[in-house]
Design a protein that fits this description.
This protein is 45% helix and 13% strand. It is of the alpha/beta class. Helix 7 links the parallel strand 8 and strand 9 (196-200).
């Protein structure tokens, strides 16, 4: 497959015999294999509610620092309730953690379990420069011994019925050394009892540039057929998700940037899974209803002032589905209050 071309330009037709896999995360049955991925500043409680309402079978919290979790849960204030909120109908939901060493990682893992998250997801993949500079996220792919010490500590300490999964990229860079370290961590984690891995087949240093190498997912699926492998990277349409599952054999997908402003991607995938054609895109009435609901949930979580600030990034993305998307996007940049947002919805939706 030519990964230098946009996926929309790569010829491909799904097999009429393809069926969506049935997904489990450890002992937790997920079913429909399309999960909302963890995204900092994006996959908060409000966003997770929106995608669940539109078909996501499971969600993962925004990426949370271990030291932050320890501090906010100790204080037991509003911040803890905002970041760690899990309601009865939010399950199944995972908590993704990021940090430096085993001690704080493990303490944070125990805290998120106490708050009701169903599984712990360890982030060894974040490519953000300041994260790497603080020896977090994707930096751990360069130091297998410390990475496996974290995995061992979390897996040995968290209750055995709580699954622990890893989020990884395929290496720090394209060198043979980075590839070897990836498999050292992957194999070591399997020996420690980890059987669920989410893999983004770009390198850490590649960040989000270029296309992701899905051939690596195929290789990994064949290398460890006993593991649950979730694929990530370049999933912007329902057909991208089907293509990844069918061509690589992964057990499911986690949708990140492709769901921002388009939570309907999960509903569309469920239609494909049921053997039905893609539904029509949401009309303006439904788009407005979802934006209003998202703002209401965000206001419940943060209060209106913070919700207005928080919704800008979502509204800019929601605008992409509007027939006059550039003009609507530019207007969304300007609103400062809930009333101004309502006026824009009155005008455009």
């Amino acid at each position: 497959m030519n990964y230098d071309a946009p996926f929309s330009e790569i010829p491909w037709n799904p097999s009429p015999n393809f069926s969506f896999p049935d997904l489990s995360i450890g002992s937790i049955r997920i079913g429909f294999p399309c999960v909302q991925a963890a995204l900092s500043g994006i996959s908060d409680w409000a966003e997770r509610r929106i995608v669940r309402n539109l078909g996501a079978s499971a969600t993962i919290s925004e990426v949370m620092l271990d030291e932050f979790i320890i501090s906010v849960t100790h204080a037991k204030g509003k911040k803890a309730k905002r970041f760690l909120r899990v309601d009865e109908d939010d399950h199944p939901v995972g908590a993704q953690l990021m940090g430096v060493g085993p001690e704080d990682f493990t303490a944070a893992a125990l805290k998120v379990v106490e708050w009701g998250f169903d599984w712990v997801d360890i982030n060894f993949g974040c490519p953000v420069k300041k994260i790497l500079g603080r020896h977090r996220g994707g930096f751990h792919l360069s130091q297998p011994e410390n990475a496996l010490a974290i995995v061992r500590s979390v897996r040995d300490t968290v209750p055995s019925h709580i699954p622990v999964s890893l989020k990884m990229r395929r290496g720090l860079d394209d060198s043979t050394e980075s590839r070897d370290k990836f498999f050292q961590i992957f194999d070591g984690a399997r020996k420690l009892g980890i059987s669920v891995f989410t893999v983004h087949p770009r390198t850490v240093l590649q960040r989000y540039a270029g296309s992701s190498n899905w051939d690596f997912l195929t290789e990994l699926r064949n290398y460890a057929p006993d593991c649950t492998i979730l694929g990530s990277g370049d999933l912007f349409t329902p057909m991208d998700c089907v293509r990844m599952m069918e061509t690589t054999g992964v057990n499911g997908v986690t949708i990140a940037r492709g769901a921002i402003g388009n939570p309907w991607i999960f509903r569309e995938l469920r239609e494909l899974a049921a053997g039905r054609p893609l539904p029509a895109p949401p009309d303006l009435k439904e788009q407005r209803e979802v934006i209003e609901e998202h703002f209401a949930l965000s206001t419940e979580l943060y209060g209106e002032k913070r919700a207005v600030f928080n919704m800008k990034k979502f509204c800019i993305k929601y605008a992409r589905l509007h027939p006059r998307h550039e003009t609507v996007r530019d207007d969304f940049v300007q609103f400062r209050t809930g009333e101004q947002l309502k006026a824009l919805l009155d005008r455009w939706y």
